[in-house]
TrEMBL record:
Protein source organism: Paralvinella palmiformis
Record PANTHER family: UDP-GLUCURONIC ACID DECARBOXYLASE 1, UDP-GLUCURONIC ACID DECARBOXYLASE-RELATED
Record's protein name: UDP-glucuronic acid decarboxylase 1
Ranges in coiled-coil conformation: 42-69
Membrane topology category: Single-pass type II membrane protein
Organism lineage string: Eukaryota, Metazoa, Spiralia, Lophotrochozoa, Annelida
InterPro entries per the UniProt record, alphabetical: NAD(P)-bd_dom, NAD(P)-bd_dom_sf, UXS-like
Amino acid sequence: MSEKPVGLKMEKLLFVFIMFVVVTGLALSRNTEYDSSLVSEHQSLMGQKRDMQDQIVQLTDRLKEVEKMKKHYPEVNFLSYKDRKRILNSNRLFLSRSIPSSRLITYHPSLQVTGGAGFVGSHLVDALMIQGHEVTVADNFFTGRKRNVEHWLGHENFELLNHDIVNPLYLEVDQIYHLASPASPPNYMYNPIKTIKTNTIGTINMLGLAKRVKARFLMASTSEIYGDPEVHPQQEDYWGNVNPIGPRACYDEAKRVAETMCYAYGKQDRVEIRVARIFNTFGPRMHMNDGRVVSNFILQALQNEPITVYGDGEQTRSFQYVTDLVDGLMNLMNSNCTLPVNIGNPDEHTINDFAQIIKRLVGGESEIVHKPAVEDDPHRRRPDITRAKQLISWEPKVPMMFGINKTIEYFHQEINRKKHSERNIWLPEYTLKSYDKL
């Protein structure tokens, strides 16, 4: 009887011991697993820390690079609030308040340029910005490009609007340079109705703006209003010889109507009007494929393609460099001349001669080939600039060969672009020193 309780007691003790061993083993196992998890987590955190430190070093290096690449603007003149003008430039339109002749340099209004991202407009913006004006560019980018004005983006005096002037625009400006319109035959013939609307409805909208804010208004007209002239050279009092239903009529007649509207607003609403009749112009920032003589010949020569001359090549043209045109536009805007003024270079060349000049300057193996003449292509074109000399003290100064070489350089860089990041930005050719003589 006494052995049974002892046996039971021993079994109980053995069971308790076994349970103790099991529980202790489980506890030790859990602690080991916990410690292993902590070590693994610690190692992971240390790895993340090293990665973050590497990223911080990389970001620091990038910030240093960005600081080195900080945008530097061309040097501009500083004008006080009394002298600074507000200018609007929209798809070849530029606005500015009238400048008394006695304050030609010291009074700087706010300006608007329509078509300011285009070929001519962008060079005009450069000159106005460097003089210290506040410039607003309005452009629908049909032929204009942001790249032409991107060196001014972010500047406190510059603003760029994506706007089609067929729609009204409400701004406070002092002067308006109205350059809005496609200017090369392929561009204005591409959508003739749009060309007509831009030069009629768009011009009315800008004249209405000039009337409302009492801004001086400069209309960028064209030598095309003379059509295929029967008078040579062309003076401003010549009425022209235009085919009103031909392929070029959408541009020629629209510009003639635009001039009529300008003088109607001048007579009826006392809007200060300036009209510039622009002759053939060339220079950097021209479109490669805009179909004009200069761009066609240079592009074909650079690519060793046949240089295409339409007709017999004996038709004549007069070519001016873009900076001369810009000087003429600004002189006219700031003058007291309300009559139309020819802005062009009277140095006349046949198309055949010009093709030979481009071939010689570019080099290469291009041949000059002739194709059928284009309908309504003017036979002779040369401006009489007597009025410009007498009334606005302007005449072209840049030799044609100098300008052509500059343009060839630009086209060569454009052709060699392989990707978007390879920018072909033609920086302003104007400096403050350019205006010291004014």
